[in-house]
């Protein structure tokens, strides 16, 4: 069905994993981050979030981290006050997706220095940068934490340069209009 594959350098095997969407949900049911790799209308997205929040938040902590849902599997893992959820096809490897979730959390943790929910609320754009470097079109793109960290640092540098240039242009305009 799919010809795309991700190579896990840790184990040296080829794995096919297609992630349909990523959700980060707080224990109170607030959505902190969403990324959709399959087409869903806004109405469908709202319904998906409501359904999965209800299912995942009510599950006991001793139950497994996989839920069968609408012909898919939803793999989730709770870290502190956030649930990291990814929806995959029925035949995809759940353990590989748990590794991807953990990899994402480790990169966020390294970037923010012990990431917490507030980091994602106030710096959501940076969390999206990390996710976009990690996953492309719902598939694992970069497995190296160092490479992702380097790319995010370069992005931060570009943003700072742009802010400095905008500030200097604003100062020039302000002085010229005096």
UniProtKB/TrEMBL annotation:
GO terms for cellular component: AP-1 adaptor complex; cytosol. The keyword Transport applies. It is a peripheral membrane protein. Its main location: membrane. The keyword Transport applies. Residues 18-157 form the AP complex mu/sigma subunit domain. InterPro entries: AP1_sigma, AP_complex_ssu, AP_mu_sigma_su, Clathrin_sm-chain_CS, Longin-like_dom_sf. It is found in: Cytoplasmic vesicle, Clathrin-coated vesicle membrane; Golgi apparatus. GO terms for molecular function: clathrin adaptor activity. Keywords: Cytoplasmic vesicle, Golgi apparatus, Membrane, Protein transport, Transport. One of its GO terms (biological process) is vesicle-mediated transport. Adaptor protein complex 1 (AP-1) is a heterotetramer composed of two large adaptins (gamma-type subunit and beta-type subunit), a medium adaptin (mu-type subunit) and a small adaptin (sigma-type subunit). Belongs to the adaptor complexes small subunit family. Subunit of clathrin-associated adaptor protein complex 1 that plays a role in protein sorting at the trans-Golgi network and early endosomes (TGN/EE). The AP complexes mediate the recruitment of clathrin to membranes and the recognition of sorting signals within the cytosolic tails of transmembrane cargo molecules. This is AP complex subunit sigma. It comes from Vitis vinifera (Grape). The lineage of its organism: Eukaryota, Viridiplantae, Streptophyta, Embryophyta, Tracheophyta.
């Amino acid at each position: 069905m799919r010809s795309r594959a991700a190579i896990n350098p840790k184990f040296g095997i080829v794995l096919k994993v297609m992630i349909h969407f990523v959700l980060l949900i707080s224990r109170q049911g607030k959505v902190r981050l969403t990324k959709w790799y399959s087409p869903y209308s806004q109405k469908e997205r709202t319904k998906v979030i409501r359904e999965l929040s209800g299912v995942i938040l009510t599950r006991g902590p001793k139950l497994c981290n996989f839920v069968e849902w609408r012909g898919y599997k939803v793999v989730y893992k709770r870290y502190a006050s956030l649930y990291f959820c990814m929806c995959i096809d029925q035949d995809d490897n759940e353990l590989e997706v748990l590794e991807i979730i953990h990899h994402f959390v480790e990169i966020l943790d390294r970037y923010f220095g012990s990431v917490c929910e507030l980091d994602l609320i106030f710096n959501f754009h940076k969390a999206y940068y990390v996710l976009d470097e990690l996953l492309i079109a719902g598939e694992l793109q970069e497995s190296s934490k160092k490479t992702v960290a380097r790319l995010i640092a370069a992005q931060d540098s570009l943003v700072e340069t742009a802010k400095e240039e905008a500030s200097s242009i604003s100062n020039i305009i302000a002085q010229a209009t005096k």
